[in-house]
Amino acid sequence: MEENITNQEEQVINNIEEPMQEAEKCQCNDNKKCRCLPIVNCILLVGLILLYIFHFTGIGAKGGKGLANADAKAPVVVGEGGLKIAYVNTDSLNANYKYIKDLEKELNAFKQGKENSLKQQMDKLQADSKALQDDYQNYLQNGSSMSLTQQQNKEAELKKRDAEIKKRAQQLAQLEQDYTSQILEKQTSENKKMIDAVYAFIREYNAQNQQFNLILAKTGTELPFILYGDEAMDITDEIVKGLNEEYEKVNSNK
What we know:
The chain is mainly α. The protein is built from six helices and three strands; from the N terminus they run ααββαααβα.
């Protein structure tokens, strides 16, 4: 048993000692009729059982319920100080976390929708611009056969259409910037939600399992946080497994 007793263990011991002190004060003359001793024995037995549960199973550890994993990797204790360290390979997490895969599909669909909408409007603008050019060329070739009034009306019409097309071109340029900002904003927002979900899960998972002091990130595509890590400290698989189970449960409740 560890020398440092937790607050929960100390409370259990106090709950055991107090009834025993009360039992010592019992003044019953008839031992056969005295019920103090059996009560103390029951409390002592329950107290010892609770002490065992709190101390050896970690049920009294902080955190919620539902994430305990009997197959969780045992912590690697580093040095005499008892520091417990683990790491998660973020490349593997990105490749295997179903939430990230679904998020990529959602973001791609959102981006594709904006691009399709912009393309349709640009195609329509190009078609109208070409029609204007064709009408202008036709006017240059056949305008001499028109009356002066007809020529003035046609020139006014072409000028109006040209102004409208220029205005639409400016609007589409602004719309393209707006769509780019919307796509970036959604990517940033959704990525933050995903990262927050991963961090929250790891905190809760750690509270119910190994109780590591440090959980680091390891990646192979960017400047690594870890230059070397003992594979015994790698808890990536169990974190990914737990994240996917949580994500599937959330989706099933929708």
